[in-house]
Amino acid sequence: MNYSNLPAEALTLLKLGEYDRAIALWEESINYQPNLLINYWYLGLTLLLQGNSSEAQAIWLSALMEINPEEIDSYMAELLEILYTTAKEYLDNHQLTIAANIYTQVLSLDEQQIEAHLYLGNALAQQANFDEAIECWQAAINLKPDLVEAYHNQAVVWQKLAEFEPAIFAYHKILEITPNCSDAYYNIGWCLCQQGKQDEAIFYFEAAIKINSNYTQAWGELGYIWLQKGNVEETILCWQKAIQNIEDYPNFAEIYCNWRDSLVKEKLSSDRLNSNADLLKKLVDKNISWETYFYLGNVLYREKHYRQAIAAYQKAIDLQPQAAEIYFILGECFNQIGDYTAAINNYQKAIEINPLSDKYYLSLGYNLYLNKDFNKAINCYQQALNINPNSGQAYFNLGLIMLNQGNWEVAITYYQNSLKFQLNTVEIYYNLAIAFARLNNLEAVIDCFRTVIKINPDLAKANFDIINIIQQENNLNTKKLEFLEIMPVDTPQDFYEFTNDWAKSHIDTTNYINIYPENTIDLKPPHTPDRDIHFSFRFTGKIQLPASFVAIIPNGRYWCNKTEAITATITDDNKILADISPEFPILSPGHPDKHPSKHSIFNLGKLPPIHTINSNVAVLSGLFNNGYFHWLFDILPRIELLRHSGIDINEIDYFFLPDRLQFQQETLNILGIPKHKIISPDNYPHIQATQLIVPSFPGSVAWMPKWVCDFLKNTFLNQQNVLKSEKIERLYISRKYTANRRIINEDEIIKILDKFGFKTVVLESMSVIDQAALMANAKVIISPHGGGLSNLVFCSPGTKVIEIFSPKYVYPCYWLVSNLVELEYYYLIGEIPEGFYLHKLLCPEFLLEDIFVNIENLLNIMKFAQII
Q: If I label 83, which of 321, 460, 527, 736 is the partner at 20 to 30 A Cα–Cα?
């Protein structure tokens, strides 16, 4: 045997993870060359990677003890270099647990190793062990007080965790070492803004700009501060600088406006997009015109920043004093802050300029009504009707005056006219109920509340309060049984943390059927060329999911609110079963904020009336049932749990879940759920059944075990359909026709992707079966975050996925799916070119914000994934 080749062979096996064979070769090499200490270093490293850290230490220490004292430093340096080199490879590849173990061993050999403390902190932070990471970085700082990277790491984590004081302290330390660090100044300013210390923040943003005059984000935040202070002139100047100095995309505003224009042509735009584009277009101009202030005012008014909007509109009026619309909307702002005199003055000015707008008279009339100047208000509403005889709002407002004056029958007539002209609001029915009550028409009162419940069942507490007022103020000959069907009910005030606890408290434990035990998901970090993984993907390597079961609850109740963001399964002793009563926000399993004592139901006061069903009902409804992801992964697997429970599905009288969307109807039909047995939450948000059958969620909401993926594939992935489907290996999934999370510069992206063989698809019009077949054939998929990526479950192992996120909403559900079906998952975070606070004003709903993609970053991630 050629023993000289043993180390090379052992190294190869080490890199392949074949540790037993590598260990055998290192031991042979040591027998052949017992004085060659590098073999001991690698033998110990292999044992460490195998999980035998104590044996690794023993090997290294025994070898070091045999070295002459004068040589020990050089050999120790050799060992540390090997450990550092190996640890860095694992850290760069985001194999974080292994990297952390190696750095820990380095510190066990020499606790003065600054880099080991630093990089151990990096590895721990990327596994969400933030407290330990901060301690490691502090240890590095204690050894090297000018270590900027350690201060930076601490500051970033504290800033992310909203611990702003220590973050500010760390950024100040950076400035002591590197006084011209504009980013440190900017971040201190940002943290101060989050604390509400705008005056202090100004200094830091201006300092960042002094160092870097083109610092877009700093200009943007500075403009927002001036806006809070009511100085709209400075706001405009700062935001002009922000928009005009965007380094990577100096034409960002133009791209946004062109995108808006294309959506307008296809009738896909919105008032929000239009007002954003109008403002951005004006910020690009060198000159400041009345429209600049007007469009700023429109955005501020939209976001209910009324006082700042007033300042902007007044500047617009200074430059354009004959614009009726500015006076009108200025009046609306004064109305919102309760300054009715100023509102009236501005409405009157608008009417002087343009007497032919019915909305001006409506607003003036309403403010006169608030001032109890009823005759003038009536005259305004009549003027509005002269201009627009079909104004439902005018009739409604006239009804308000008649109600206030006690003219019950006339009020009723006006309200009925407002309904005739398509003004169908709960306020009309509340006021009608009051008027009918004054006329002792109990049946009509009850009909009004029935309609309110149908329009918005979440108004249970308001209904209860108004019904009480009606009962107290009117001598109604009430029939209590009739009132019961519209009377809201008390909310539960207690809970069982686990359904199994409830079952054990009953004699009949057959009400709880265990299907699958608790299980663990192994998670691999996503692939990224960045040094650090995004905070949203920072988990320990394993996630524990709860057991799945089916509960049978005699006289059980189920309630969900109108938006399907809050749900509750309620026992006959009026307690919620917390583990099958999820609500938004959806938190990761084991999150401390998930404790059932914090459930929103306890603060609602009342729930809508109960609809009683004298049958057995299987509850399959959950959170956001109309979302494709939740439907596939949270709802449909509950049918599979029913099948495993031993309950005959054919014997179930009703299934409680929606079925109005095409994908819902298709999947329920495939799974054999008859349409005539479906009860929709849209019609009955609060039910009580003789027997409520409730399958648990397969894991936690939005966190599913692998069997769910297998179930979906076996059910919806038809092999014949796959063979017949068009073989498209490279897919770009567009969200162009959705209302949110669209790509702003998508046209540019599609042109680039076309060059690399990608085909753009829109999934909304396709059947579930066809979507499954399409994804099964794909080898590369690029898509913004959205429901279409739920179909990743149908992909073949090894398919490459690049998911594109907006910066403020990175949710890891499709990374989880990719882990479960063994896909190669990458992510790309979009840009906020205009700065955080200006962006927040333009896009306040982070769940829905559209995404701007840096093309260079897209190409880089594609190269990193070896797609191009």
A: 527
